């Protein structure tokens, strides 16, 4: 047991001496000490209670202030009771260069169901199946009557007629959510450029519209940016010309039994793509499904032959070889080259189309008659290193800068090692695979006096010309050669003569490589015609490419570009040149025939 | 001796009970409580018919029950407030042990009403939640233990009360009912603070909590997600919180009008945990501020009256009761405005709930009993303290 000291000891001892009871003294002392403790504690507690009270006031103040802030703010989400609340158009429109709508938004409704609010779920399912042929009444009815289902989407987009019909069912458990959908009013026109859009995050009251391909995906963030405030995205495309291009290309593709076709029309000074088409195409309002594994991506209508398609474009490349040789001062247009066989490079026999022998040809005629041995000899003079640099500067090694997502992955195929043999084949367009768009940019360079251009889909204010690769006089000489390909009697593109417009260009017929390697198909070609017009004062570059065309009007099937791509390009230029505000310039003879025809 | 023989008229010492009660009780707080109860009935008229309708009961079934239990609670409150502090203490300590045993037996005898947590005893016509009663009784017991601990050669009351608190918090956490556990913890903490916890220790504890929180945030992805989700201003508009927040926005300053609110149709807990959202939607910020002011006034008045109290037990018990009452209201409203993470906690006297009402009545009755003005012994205090 602990001993507690007696306090106050002095008084207790005194009391003991007097014989009094010390307990009373000790009790009194304890009482006094208690009082003292209580006073001290009370003072301390007073301060702490004050702190507590202040904390409470602050906390209540915060709750009250937060209530006030919430009350002052607008309700965030429109409630289900407030259907029909307008949703602001958030995604920017896309227009062509003259402001004509290519893609816009339309407000529509989605249809969803609250089965627990339904009066007669089975009848509702049957009525819905009557309105929407793709709905199976039994399956939908089973989902409606499943007690676990509290919510389900029925349709993502409704037409106004469907909306009314669903409304007329009179089922309270069928509800409409406002939606904004992407609409492409021109259907399949410029489908590969526009790509398409679909719904991202979906709620009952709104859904996010996101781009899935093409320029819609490339500029997705920009077009959704609310700060843009609906300023449309103006493209370099011209709706009318695009329509004419697609129409002619489609007709040509069908007439020539081709399995695909592509064309690119480019402004040679700005790099603006005025029309770009790839066939077969699709309707971006209803995008076909993405090809699954096992299917060839290049056979899907989603495949953009003009941008994604990488092909050996054949003899169209010869003009680059000739132009570079002229630029380096190695030859003159009239320099004569012996193109007779045999000619071997590293043991590879360089042959001509159908084993022809052109004999001695001027450089110009090498282009006009398209001699492989001629360009091979030119490139051997140029040297493979300089040839490689030339193509690299021309942008033939990198994916094109076109503003659609598909362009990023279309990196041209070039040989791993640039040997003399590669140099020779590339001089006439084999062993290098580029897209028709790349080719159009290359021809634009020749057309504009030797400046590299970057293809673009956005409308430009003025010329955008890059590095100069050719002297003006060399570019002029190259253009003259191209004009002669069309105008000369022996030219391979004589079908490209268009009354009133002087066209210059080069054909290319390349046999398609076999898919599993091991040489080339004899009866499958890529026929290309790359052109500049009008040649006196060039403005536009045009590339028309047909995939596996065959012309069967003659005794033997003809597949060369001169018989396939060239007539299509000529028809195209006839249609689009007036639309491009180009003034026809008839030679005297032609005018006479025209007058007689109009009698 | 004479009285024993002749039996004189019995004389009562002091003044009669009722006049004394009326003279000394905090009449403001009393009227605030009645006003809160009135607000609760008014909001119940708006908030509960949809629920009654859904279950297939008469539309004002819940309002009638609320009025009935509210009447009982008011009677309990007034009766309790008439008792002296010692009487309150005795009854409360006895009641505490009953409630404690009831809480301990919940896992065996209780029901969960299909809500996932076993918190209730079903009595047929009504259900009882023992933790509601345990809270105020625990406060009294703790105050007694702590006050005794401050006496010369008293028992180690603080330690005992801490162990008790720990046991109760553990039991509540296992139900699980983290809201009530937090309240118990908070009430104990406040009493410890007012009862003279060393400042250094308090600061150390606060630092430890912050440190622990940071550690948990950095090491546990789950905790991180919960915390970020709470801070994230975006809330799923179809969740209870989303509806509540939207209702407050819809209400604005003056409300959408009596009976015009929509939130009560979508919120299952519109008449209990989220009744403040109903108030905000139908009556606007104005009503919310009135309710807030009533709670704040009750807490403030009680704390200020307790400042002058010399008796440590009364001071501690009163502080604990007032703080618990105030914090419960604050948490409820803080959840509705998303200042605090979601916890199922009722708004005292306003939310619907039988046992919560009666327990609240008893608690406030005890608070009123402790805040009654009584002589404090020292002439200095009387001089300082004006007449209360």
TrEMBL record, chain A:
Q: Name one GO cellular component term.
A: plasma membrane
Give any Pfam family that matches.
Answer: Transpeptidase
| Domain called Penicillin-binding protein dimerisation: residue spans | 87-224
Q: Which GO terms describe its biological process?
A: cell division; cell wall organization
- Subcellular localization: Membrane
Keyword set, alphabetical order: Carboxypeptidase, Cell cycle, Cell division, Hydrolase, Membrane, Protease, Transmembrane, Transmembrane helix
What's this protein's name? Cell division protein FtsI (Penicillin-binding protein 3)
UniProtKB/TrEMBL annotation, chain B:
Q: Keywords for this entry?
A: Cell cycle, Cell division, Cell shape, Glycosyltransferase, Membrane, Peptidoglycan synthesis, Transferase, Transmembrane, Transmembrane helix
Q: Which residues cross the membrane?
A: 28-47, 67-85, 91-109, 159-178, 190-217, 283-304, 316-337, 349-370
State the EC number(s): 2.4.99.28
Q: Which Pfam families match?
A: FTSW_RODA_SPOVE (PF01098)
Note the topology in the membrane: Multi-pass membrane protein
Give the catalysed reaction(s), semicolon-separated: [GlcNAc-(1->4)-Mur2Ac(oyl-L-Ala-gamma-D-Glu-L-Lys-D-Ala-D-Ala)](n)-di-trans,octa-cis-undecaprenyl diphosphate + beta-D-GlcNAc-(1->4)-Mur2Ac(oyl-L-Ala-gamma-D-Glu-L-Lys-D-Ala-D-Ala)-di-trans,octa-cis-undecaprenyl diphosphate = [GlcNAc-(1->4)-Mur2Ac(oyl-L-Ala-gamma-D-Glu-L-Lys-D-Ala-D-Ala)](n+1)-di-trans,octa-cis-undecaprenyl diphosphate + di-trans,octa-cis-undecaprenyl diphosphate + H(+)
Kindly give the InterPro entries that the UniProt entry links to this protein: FtsW/RodA (IPR001182)
Q: Where this protein primarily resides, as one coarse class?
A: membrane
Question: What biological processes does GO assign it?
Answer: cell division; peptidoglycan biosynthetic process; regulation of cell shape
Q: Name one GO molecular function term.
A: peptidoglycan glycosyltransferase activity
Q: Where does this one sit in the cell?
A: Membrane
Asked if Aminoacyl-tRNA synthetase is a keyword of the record, the answer is no
One GO term describing the cellular component = plasma membrane
Keyword check for Glycosyltransferase: yes
Give the main EC class. Answer: transferase
Similarity field: Belongs to the SEDS family. FtsW subfamily.
Q: What is this protein called?
A: Probable peptidoglycan glycosyltransferase FtsW
Write down the species.
Antarctobacter heliothermus
Organism placement in taxonomy: Bacteria, Pseudomonadati, Pseudomonadota, Alphaproteobacteria, Rhodobacterales
């Amino acid at each position: 047991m602990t001993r507690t000291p007696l306090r106050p000891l002095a008084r207790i001892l005194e009391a003991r001496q007097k014989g009094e009871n010390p307990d009373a003294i000790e009790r009194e002392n304890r009482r006094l000490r208690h009082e003292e403790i209580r006073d001290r504690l009370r003072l301390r507690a007073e301060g702490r209670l004050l702190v507590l009270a202040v904390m409470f006031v602050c906390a209540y103040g915060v709750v009250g202030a937060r209530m006030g802030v919430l009350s002052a703010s607008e309700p965030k989400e429109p409630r289900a009771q407030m259907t029909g609340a307008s949703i602001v158009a958030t995604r920017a429109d896309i227009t062509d260069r003259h402001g004509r709508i290519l893609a816009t938004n339309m407000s529509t409704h989605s249809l969803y169901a609250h089965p627990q609010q339904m009066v007669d779920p089975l009848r509702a399912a049957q009525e819905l199946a009557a309105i929407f042929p793709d709905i199976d009444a039994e399956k939908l009815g089973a989902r409606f009557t499943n007690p676990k289902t509290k919510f389900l989407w029925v349709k993502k987009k409704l037409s106004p007629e469907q909306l009314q019909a669903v409304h007329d069912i009179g089922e309270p458990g069928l509800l409409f959510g406002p939606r904004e959908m992407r609409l492409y009013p021109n259907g399949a026109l410029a489908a590969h450029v526009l790509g398409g859009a679909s719904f991202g995050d979906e709620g009952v009251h709104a859904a996010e519209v996101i781009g899935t391909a093409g320029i819609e995906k490339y500029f997705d963030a920009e077009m959704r940016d609310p700060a843009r405030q609906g300023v449309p995205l103006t493209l370099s495309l011209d709706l009318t010309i695009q329509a004419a291009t697609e129409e002619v290309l489609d007709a040509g593709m069908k007439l020539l039994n081709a399995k695909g076709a592509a064309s690119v029309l480019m402004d040679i000074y700005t790099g603006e793509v005025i029309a770009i088409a790839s066939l077969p195409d699709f309707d971006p309002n209803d995008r076909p499904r993405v090809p699954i594994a096992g299917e060839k991506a290049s056979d899907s209508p989603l495949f953009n032959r003009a941008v994604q398609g990488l092909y050996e474009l054949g003899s169209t490349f010869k003009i680059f070889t000739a132009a570079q040789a002229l630029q380096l001062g190695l030859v003159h247009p009239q320099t004569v080259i012996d193109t007779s066989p045999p000619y071997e490079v590293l043991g590879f026999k360089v042959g001509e189309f159908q084993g022809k022998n052109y004999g001695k040809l001027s450089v110009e005629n090498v282009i006009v008659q398209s001699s492989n041995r001629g360009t091979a000899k030119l490139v051997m003079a140029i040297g493979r290193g300089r040839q490689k640099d030339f193509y690299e500067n021309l942008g033939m090694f990198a994916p094109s800068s076109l503003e659609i997502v598909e362009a990023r992955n279309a990196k041209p195929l070039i040989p791993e090692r640039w040997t003399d043999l590669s140099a020779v084949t590339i001089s006439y367009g084999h062993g290098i695979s580029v897209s028709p768009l790349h080719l159009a940019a290359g021809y634009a360079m020749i057309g504009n006096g030797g400046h590299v251009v970057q293809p673009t889909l956005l409308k430009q204010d003025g010329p955008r010309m890059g590095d100069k690769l050719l002297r003006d006089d060399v570019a002029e000489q190259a253009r003259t050669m191209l004009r002669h390909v069309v105008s000369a009697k022996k030219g391979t593109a004589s079908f490209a003569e268009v009354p009133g417009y002087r066209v210059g260009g080069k054909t290319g017929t390349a046999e398609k490589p076999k898919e599993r390697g091991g040489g080339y198909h004899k009866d499958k070609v890529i026929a290309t015609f790359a052109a500049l017009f009008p040649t006196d004062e060039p403005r536009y570059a045009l590339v028309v490419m047909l995939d596996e065309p065959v012309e069967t009007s003659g005794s033997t099937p003809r597949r060369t570009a001169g018989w396939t791509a060239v007539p299509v390009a000529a028809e195209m230029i006839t249609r689009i040149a007036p639309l491009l505000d180009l003034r026809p310039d008839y030679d005297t003879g032609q005018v006479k025939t025209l007058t007689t025809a109009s009698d | 001796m004479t009285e024993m023989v002749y039996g004189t008229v019995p004389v009562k010492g002091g003044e009669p009970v009722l006049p004394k009660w009326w003279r000394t009780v905090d009449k403001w707080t009393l009227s605030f409580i009645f006003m809160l109860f009135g607000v609760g009935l008014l909001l119940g008229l708006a908030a509960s018919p949809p629920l009654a309708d859904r279950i297939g009961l008469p539309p004002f079934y819940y309002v009638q029950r609320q009025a009935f239990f509210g009447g009982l609670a008011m009677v309990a409150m007034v009766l309790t407030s008439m008792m002296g502090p010692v009487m309150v203490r005795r009854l409360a300590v006895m009641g505490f042990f009953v409630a404690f045993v009831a809480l301990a037996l919940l896992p065996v005898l209780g029901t969960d009403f299909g809500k996932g947590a076993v918190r209730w005893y079903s009595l047929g016509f009504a259900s009882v939640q023992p933790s509601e009663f345990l809270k105020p009784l625990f406060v009294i017991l703790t105050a007694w233990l702590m006050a005794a601990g401050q006496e010369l050669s008293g028992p180690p009351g603080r330690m005992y009360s801490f162990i008790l608190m720990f046991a109760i918090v553990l039991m509540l956490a296992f139900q699980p009912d983290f809201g009530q556990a937090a309240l118990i913890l908070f009430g104990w903490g406040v009493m410890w603070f007012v009862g003279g916890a060393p400042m250094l220790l308090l600061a150390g504890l606060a630092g430890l909590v912050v440190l622990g929180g940071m550690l948990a945030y950095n090491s546990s992805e789950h905790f991180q997600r919960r915390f970020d989700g709470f801070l994230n201003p975006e809330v799923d508009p179809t969740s209870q919180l989303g509806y509540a927040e939207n209702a407050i926005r819809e209400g604005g300053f003056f409300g959408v009008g009596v009976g015009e609110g929509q939130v009560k149709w979508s919120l299952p807990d519109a008449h209990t945990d989220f009744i403040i959202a109903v108030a905000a939607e139908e009556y606007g910020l104005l009503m919310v501020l009135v309710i807030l002011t009533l709670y704040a006034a009750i807490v403030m008045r009680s704390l200020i009256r307790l400042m002058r109290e010399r008796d440590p037990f009364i001071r501690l018990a009163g502080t604990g009761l007032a703080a618990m009452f105030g914090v419960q209201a604050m948490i409820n409203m803080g959840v509705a405005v998303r200042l605090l993470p979601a916890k199922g906690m009722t708004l005292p006297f306003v939310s619907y709930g039988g046992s919560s009402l009666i327990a609240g009545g008893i608690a406030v009755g005890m608070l009123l009993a402790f805040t009654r003005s009584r002589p404090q012994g020292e002439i200095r205090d009387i001089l300082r303290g004006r007449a209360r």
